[in-house]
Amino acid sequence: MLVLGIESSCDDTSAAVLENGAKVLSNVIFNQNTTHSKYGGVVPELAGRCHVESIDRVITEALKQSKTTLRQIDLISVTVGPGLVSSLLVGINTAKGLAYALQKPLIGINHLEGHLLAIFLHEEVKFPFVALTVSGGHTDLYRVDGFGIYKILGRTRDDAAGESFDKVAKMLKLGYPGGPIIEKKALLGNPLAFHFPRAFLEKDSLDFSFSGLKTSVRNVILKRDCGESPVLSDSDISAGFQDAVIDVLTSKAILACKKEKINRIVVTGGVAANNALRNSISNTANSHGFKTFFPKMEFCTDNAAMIACAGYYKSLKSTPFNKDALFLDASATLSL
Ligand code: KG4
Ligand code: ZN
Predict the structure, then answer these.
(1) Ligand 1 center from residue 230 Cα (angstroms)
(2) What is the Cα–Cα distance from 186 to 234, expressed in whole angstroms?
(3) Residue 125 DSSP label
């Protein structure tokens, strides 16, 4: 079965061709970093326009790399939310047009389900497992009992972890996206040079909060720049900030496993590309006898292969209809 995946929920235009749910024949990603970097974050109007300009050639390239034609595709799978509506609509309308013209079934996918199932692109994880989804828009803990069977255990009450990486990079004038830049800077810094606050919230809570940490980083930078606090380098601030985020993410992922009596953790989403986070969670999990699973780097950040994968599994449960080609719509706040 060949699935064409289409993803355009934020600032990456992506198309992928997937065979039988796990063989990635192509996964083409066009990122808009150069467009948004001068603003230190994604500008929704510009993102929508960039998707319009690039989606046709991204799909054409994905088909070319996979050596398939549109006629050979059995199912089209597209992200319908959550995300930026003007961005989502480009992928959805393109998918609807293709499905209608080719009379192919179309399936709408929740972007978060794509992240949750990205691991299945190269590894069959046994159910149940705990999933930590850490991206630019979300920081959630789920209990996953099967394909389509998800229970939310905790979520961020304010900023997402990735968003806080982006904001700290912006405050330090380091560029966008902040995550990989801060990770690189942190390697040169001393994480103990300044102890940033960790918001663990109420006892046993699996929710997150990163806004206080962000404010603390802002205050430290302001005080440093006017000579009021010890001289901290950008690398020290990056290392201290990253340590605080990782500390909380690791503790809560382990706590979720203990509370649910589950010994498998999947860590996914853009921030899961962070090596320090991967090491922290796998080392701590190992010491508790828990197993960890991380999607390959290219499947952590937004990509269409994970959307094709989620579409494949969803189609096994309920036959997708071509009528979706007429009725699918974008939802900025779609929940799982
Ligand atoms: O999953 P994703 O591509 O898009 C959303 O669904 O939001 O995640 C993007 C986020 C950005 O905030 C980016 O700064 C962060 O993931 N990110 C990282 C790293 N690579 C990407 N954060 C920390 N370390 C990284 N290496
Ligand atoms: Zn994402």
Answers:
(1) 30
(2) 8
(3) P
The answer on pLDDT for 321 being more than 70 is no
User: Lowest mean pLDDT: which of 21-35, 149-163, 238-252, 321-335?
Assistant: 321-335
C-alpha 29 to ligand 1 mean position (Å):
14
Per the CB < 8 A criterion, the answer to whether 162 and 271 are in contact is yes
| pLDDT tens by residue, 80-110 | 999 999 999 999 999 999 999 999 999 999 9
The residue whose CA has the least distance to atom 19 of ligand 1 is: 179
| Distance of CA 227 from the midpoint of ligand 2 (Å) | 39
Instruction: Round to whole Å and give the CA distance between 306 and 270.
Output: 13
CB 290 within 8 A of CB 261: no
Rounded Cα gap, residues 161 and 261, in angstroms = 25
Predicted confidence at residue 228, as pLDDT, reads: 84
Q: How many CB atoms lie within 10 A of CB 138?
A: 21
Catalogue all structural domains in the chain, each as residue range(s) with its CATH number.
2-116+302-326 (3.30.420.40), 124-294 (3.30.420.40)
| Cβ–Cβ < 8 Å for 334, 150 | no
Does the pTM of the predicted model rise above 0.85? yes
Give CA–CA dist 152/273, Å, rounded: 22
Dihedral (Cα; 127, 108, 307, 282), 10-degree rounding: -40
Instruction: Using alpha carbons only, give the angle 139, 124, 140 rounded to the nearest 5 degrees.
Output: 10
Residue with the smallest CA separation from ligand 1 atom 3 is: 301
Distance between CA atoms of 26 and 4, rounded to whole angstroms?
10
Helix (H) or strand (E) holding 24: strand 23-31
pLDDT of residue 37: 85
